[in-house]
């Protein structure tokens, strides 16, 4: 029994894919202390170059912000991921965001979650940088490693590897 538990602990690393195509930025560089100081959890950020936001992992949609700027996803291994499009985008009250999923939907890596009109959004908020954070990372003793890549393709590029 002991041996079985040991094997379980050193499980395969989890790879989170990019939720959007763009430039990868460490969370510490997000111009908002809530994200840069990791108050919401570990993660990465992307400066978007395309409009499609996709699922970074297989899981279930657990939250869609009423203002449509953020989507929460719970992976099959109980990681809770928040994709927050832009900074202060809650003020847009949904304008520029077309959410394609509903709470309770099961999604696979690369499934489209929303389409964002960045032309509209860009001019109305301080920044379109899009943080992806693991909101329950505090409760685990996992290790989070940011990719060395600087550019990513939505649903294809592994941007964060989680060990533990």
UniProtKB/TrEMBL annotation:
Keyword Transferase: yes
Top-level taxon in the UniProt lineage: Bacteria
GO cellular component: a single term: cytoplasm
Transmembrane intervals: none
GO biological process, one term: phosphoenolpyruvate-dependent sugar phosphotransferase system
Domain PTS EIIA type-1: 32-136
Localisation: Cytoplasm
Single GO MF annotation: kinase activity
Assigned keywords, A-Z: Kinase, Phosphotransferase system, Sugar transport, Transferase, Transport
PANTHER family linked to this entry: PTS SYSTEM GLUCOSE-SPECIFIC EIIA COMPONENT
Name of the featured protein: PTS system, glucose-specific IIA component
Organism encoding this protein: Gracilibacillus orientalis
Top-level taxonomy: Bacteria, Bacillati, Bacillota, Bacilli, Bacillales
């Amino acid at each position: 029994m002991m041996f079985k538990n040991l094997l379980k602990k050193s499980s395969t690393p989890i790879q989170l894919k990019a939720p959007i195509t763009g430039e990868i930025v460490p969370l510490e560089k997000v111009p908002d202390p809530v994200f840069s100081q990791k108050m919401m959890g570990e993660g990465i950020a992307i400066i978007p170059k395309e409009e499609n936001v996709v699922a970074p992992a297989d899981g279930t949609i657990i939250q869609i912000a009423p203002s449509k700027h953020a989507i929460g996803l719970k992976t099959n291994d109980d990681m809770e991921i928040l994709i927050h499009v832009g900074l202060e985008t809650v003020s847009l009250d949904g304008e520029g965001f077309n959410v394609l999923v509903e709470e309770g939907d099961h999604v696979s890596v690369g499934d489209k979650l929303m389409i964002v009109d960045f032309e509209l959004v860009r001019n109305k908020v301080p920044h379109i940088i899009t943080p992806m954070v693991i909101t329950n990372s505090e409760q685990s003793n996992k290790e989070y490693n940011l990719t060395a890549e600087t550019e990513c393709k939505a649903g294809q590029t592994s941007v964060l590897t989680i060990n533990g």
